[in-house]
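>> received
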Amino acid sequence: MLRDVKLTQKKIFVSDCEGPLSTNDNAFEATAYFIENGDKLFALVSKYDDILADVTKKPGYKAGDTLKLILPFFKAYDVTDEKLRDFSYRTVRLVSCAKETLQFVKNIMHAFIVNTGYEHYTFALCDHLDFPRDHGYGTKLQLDKYQIDETEKGVLRKIKEKIVAMPMITIPKEVNSIEDFTIQDQETIRKLDEIFWDTIPKMKSGEILDEVDPRGGWKKAETIKEIVGRLSGDLTDTMYIGDSITDVESLELVRRNGGLAVSFNGNEYAVRKAEIAVFSESTAITSVLAHAFNLFGKKFVLELVRRWNSSTLEEYIADAGLHDKIAKLCLENSPRVEIINSQNVDRLVKESCAIRKKVRGEAIGTLG
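>> returned
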């Protein structure tokens, strides 16, 4: 298979963190842990985030800004940087083979992690993976910088109770504007607009909304551009792996510029913007795709995926001389990989969402 294929120079590997490498949604889990009914709070605010980023396209707002919207409530429940760091370090859950994959990939490519989550978690994950922290990017946050009094904490706790009492919003399949939502959901969206863009900005904790800038959406894509520029590289030689709405711009950026855009157990947002869909309970397949992309380029990877079956994978692993552990994990776990096109995308969305929930759990798997 590898005969007569031209080798190219060392390429760039960039992966999202939560999903492709770990099963966590750290911000969701921290909210649920530190705040009473925090799971309900985060789930609704996350759905609201999807609407602002993808439906109404609120000016200046980007996917993943949920991570700043929930921070005033962290302050109301006395969450500190130390508590968040400790929680993050204790709760890291890696996707099977993630550590082996990152060690393998960073030895053959320029490897980076770009995460929307707080740096507290990003650095904890890097430590668990034995991956250099200076190659890991997350949302910068200094919780202890913000001080609010007990009166404001009480007000925020009451606001939190109002939010968790609101019904969950359902985003229609075909949606172009707020008018496409049910009357009940339109009212919920209106109330959340008032809370986050009128009430809280007038409070001391409103400083958080002004100053914290989550690394999602276009900001994540800008980080990829910075990495490529720093290496004097090219987006054509960049492989990006993502799984959620915060990866949309990054997947689009890399794909538009000739790089390899991969959805790993992605949700609908990621699958519809990627070029290849991976369905797997192990990251071992990421090692194979990265190896093929680094040595032989995107066209070779696409041909490998088009021919995909167990014998094709076995042949590539043998020809490429990949180490035994990667080969064993790939062959035993039988990962599925498929090129995404207009004819199969709806099916792939359904199948990817199903394995996403299996690997990460129902609550996290349904988040945008």
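>> The longest helix spans residues 38-55.
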